[in-house]
Amino acid sequence: MKPYIWYSKKSKVTGRVLRENLNINGGMSPPPSDTDFLVCWGMSNGNISHLNLGENNVCILNHPDGSKNAVDKLKTLQLLSENNVSVPNFQTVEDINENGLNLNYPLLGRKRFHQGGSFIYICKRFINGAMRKGVDYFMEFVNSSTEYRVHIFNNKIVKIAEKVPSEDGVTKTDIRNHRYGWRFAWRPFKDKNYPRGILNESLKAMNVLVLFFGAVDVLWGTDNKPYILEINTAPTLDNSSMEQYINRILQKMEEASEKIERPV
Q1: Domain limits, the chain
Q2: What's the rounded Cα separation, in Å, for the pair 68 and 59?
């Protein structure tokens, strides 16, 4: 086989570690034309038309088209909503300008391209200030008891992390991100330990965006309902998670290699 892991400038740190541990070629440059096993680690704007896709002999883990939709957070919400996946109520600035605001305060103003907890504008009574900042959409604030990150690989849940306060304490409770003192704590995965809705909606979200692997950020609301926020196609990995991804990619490589050697 001629495998290749393709990563972007933003995902290169983890991408390089994966490349070294998988012992395969990779980088930020497009894959060679003879690549027959491609891992797209956060690569969302690449062109793979030069690969031999017509013969169906290239195995692709996360096509750039799927990752492109995941990177565009507004597009993610739109696609999920259209396919009956549970997401917070949201409205684009364009629609607000045309039809007025149809959401209930408090609101979170977001740009369609953001990373982590960046560019969050909390609007308790007015949205004018956030609109001047150039946000693309507003989302209703969801009262939630906790937030999870659900790692999925090949339509199977492999690991779950829960947002918890860091040892240094938190400075904000309405926004759970690293900047305000929150971190992900990994939990042993057993179906019975988590609300079924969290698992089902995360799997549905992955299927809608046609992603092979990814980490789904999902809230568990105080109304006992799940709310998908986004899907990460190049999630940060600790040692245990890195091992999970490496082993599963290697397993998929072996399966693909056997299929090429012994075609049906």
Answers
A1: 3-62+241-261, 69-87+143-232, 90-140
A2: 18
Tell me the per-residue pLDDT of 44-93, one tens digit each, with 9 for 90 and over: 888 888 887 655 578 999 999 889 999 999 999 999 999 999 999 999 99
Alpha-carbon gap, residue 79 to 136, rounded angstroms:
16
d(C-alpha 100, C-alpha 91), whole Å: 10
Spatial distance between the Cα atoms of 35 and 192, rounded to a whole number of angstroms: 41
Homologous superfamily (CATH) for 69-87+143-232: ATP-grasp fold, B domain (3.30.470.20)
Pairing of strands 3-7, 25-27: parallel
pLDDT digits (tens, 9 = 90+) for 112-123: 987 765 678 999
- The yes/no answer on whether domain 3-62+241-261 falls in CATH 3.40.50 is yes
pLDDT for 257 equals: 83
Q: Which of 198, 108, 89, 95 is nearest to 147 (CA)?
A: 198
How far does CA 29 lie from the centroid of its chain?
22
Using only C-alpha atoms, the chain has a radius of gyration, in whole angstroms, of 19
Helix (H, G, I), strand (E, B) or coil at 39: strand
Better-scored residue on pLDDT, 90 or 158: 90
- Which of the 8 DSSP states describes residue 219? E
Please tell me which residue, 118 or 215, carries the higher pLDDT value: 215
